[in-house]
Amino acid sequence: MKKHNFNPGPAILPEYAINETIAAMKDFAGTGLSILEVSHRSKEFEAVVNETVALFKEVMNIPEGYAVILVGGGASTQFFHVPYNLLEKKAAYLVTGEWATRAYKEAKLFGEVEVVASSEDKKFTYIPKDYTIPADADYFHITTNNTIFGTEILHDIDSPVPLVADMSSDICSRPVDVSKYGLIYAGAQKNIGAAGLTVVIVKESLLGKVSRPLPTMVDYRTHIKNNSLFNTPPVLNVFVTMMTLRWIKEIGGLTEIEKRNKAKAELIYNEIDRNKCFVGTVVKEDRSRMNACFVMAPGYEQYEEEFAKFAASRGMVGIKGHRSVGGFRASMYNALPLESVQALVDCMQEFEASH
Q: What's the rounded mean pLDDT across residues 281-292?
């Protein structure tokens, strides 16, 4: 039976990236060594780092004056790296979910932090609209996609202060105007690779302005100066990301990716709205293209476990909602084909017909 991978992360990867990585695990770049054992100081691996950075710059149309850093530690590590490097007097945060909340809590360790708006009052089911970004903040932090509750900011915010974005779950899912951001960070394991690699895209002119001493590994300038090779990076994961970015470029870049992601989101949300057995959990205008969250409709709550088993029997993998909210979540990252979303829709329709 074909499996349809809706896992929220680590998420589905392009078949091309998987196959190329398998080959490199056996013989990397003709070295006779596995990518798992090659020296990160070798010219062959340095070429991988250089190509990965170049692909990010090309695919995301990153302007001059920005550096691309490849590090470990996950996006959660960036929750404190960002304020460590940028917070001098005050930071501003938009709190739209669990990960935004965690980022805000970490920043409070370094100075004054203002929450400009929060959607916690309605269980993070919408994106706040009416708020003012304080002009005296060192930066304004947003989380562009809410993986747990299923909301997404689908436009580039105009900010009077440097805009910092955690794009872990929607990076490279659509074109963005990088020039509107001071810093973008993302874990790779949703749209651009395997778990273990984090990318940081930072405007270099923002760095070196805080008065606190910076630990070597926390200072972004360390990694910029050393081409992300100050210490041993997650070598295999960098390779996977390079191959994933090659795939994105090959199929037509972020314009094509966005077209595909829009089609998948439209297909699943239309079914959620039509099907008598299910109901969406998010304000329609703020629905995420990456994570469609839904629950059983009123009167059908008792069928939740039955539908979960039914969907699994049809090859649906990873559609169970986050443990904190329940229900269902269809994560539709870049590499998920439209055919898989159609298979889930067919499954939902079949379940409706029998109930």
A: 97
Whether 273 is catalytic:
no
Phi, psi of 156 (to 5 degrees): -90, 115
CA distances from 1 to 43, 223, 312, 313 (A): 43, 45, 11, 9
> Vertex 340, ends 336 and 343: CA angle to 5°?
165
Is residue 262 part of the annotated active site? The answer reads no
What architecture is domain 15-251?
3-Layer(aba) Sandwich (3.40)
Q: Do domains 15-251 and 254-353 have the same CATH topology?
A: no
pLDDT digits (tens, 9 = 90+) for 310-337: 999 999 999 999 887 889 999 999 999 9
List the 328-331 sheet strands across, edge first: 278-280, 291-296, 328-331
Q: Are strands 112-118 and 90-95 parallel, antiparallel or unpaired?
A: parallel
**The domain defined by 254-353 carries CATH number 3.40.50.300:** no
pLDDT of residue 324: 78
Give residue limits of the domains in the chain. 15-251, 254-353
Residue 278 has, within 13 A of its CA and on its CB side, a CA count of: 31
Q: What burial class does residue 270 get, using C-beta atoms within 10 Å of its C-beta: 0-12 exposed, 13-18 middle, 19+ buried? A: exposed
Question: Which residues pair with residue 114 across a beta bridge?
Answer: 92
Q: Which of 3, 43, 57, 99 is catalytic?
A: 99
| Span 16-41, pLDDT tens digits | 999 999 999 999 999 999 999 999 99
Catalytic annotation, pick one of 138, 170, 190, 203: 190
Is residue 105 among the annotated active site residues?
Answer: no
What is the Cα–Cα distance from 193 to 160, expressed in whole angstroms? 32
User: Which residues make beta-bridge pairs with 38?
Assistant: none
- Exactly one of 166, 170, 219, 286 is catalytic; name it: 166
Distance CA 111, CA 92 (A): 11
- In this structure, the number of other CB atoms found within 10 A of the CB of residue 20 comes to 19
